[in-house]
Description:
alpha/beta; three-stranded antiparallel sheet
Amino acid sequence: MVKLMRIIVEEDYQSMSKKAALLVAGQVLLKADTVLGLATGSTPLGMYKELVRMYQEGEVDFSAVKTFNLDEYYLLPPDDLQSYHYFMQENFFKHINIRAENIHLPDGMAADIEEECMQYEKAIEASGGIDLQVLGIGENGHIGFNEPAESLNVYTGLVNLTEETIKVNSRFFSSMEEVPQKALTVGMGTILKARRIILLASGEKKAKAIRDTVCGQVTTQVPSSFLQLHPDVTLILDQAAASLIVD
């Protein structure tokens, strides 16, 4: 399974971010109406910054691109400073020429969450599916908010966040009590339907998760290990995140 994964190891976070941006921009250049699956969090920030620079310098055009984000906190308003709606607008969307109607994120404030999740899946399908899915990875191997569990969501759904993830995310909030305990997330089945996947990881804290993703057994206890089943996955890592991979 490991041979199906392409692993690119860069010297540091900045180099990793530039490499990831080049792959995303290359996809858009090859297919102007590309459908991108996007991730939030600190890891892809450098990639978004580089893509904004490339757009501003006329190297890439996002006018026909559609995007679907992986997740959003449950019951956190879109204008909340910690919502992923806000994150994406501030760090990417408002700096490029993407059309507002082509931007999609799950609505954690929806009155009918089950219906919202169903419609999100239908919107992805109606767009023709994800051409390139960008992923980060949690220290426990979660991707999106698909947490280690006895079973994983196949489709977009409402999930409980683990204590570990809540603790990690608390650095963005004033207190632990403010951290959402649930989120809407695209499911593993939908992620694995993407035609191409790139996963970004930086730092020693991600090294064990990367090792388990690449070298471990496929298990719901390490959701990222399911990427071994996909035919076109590229891992873009800095040296620290790659430090525990063995040949």
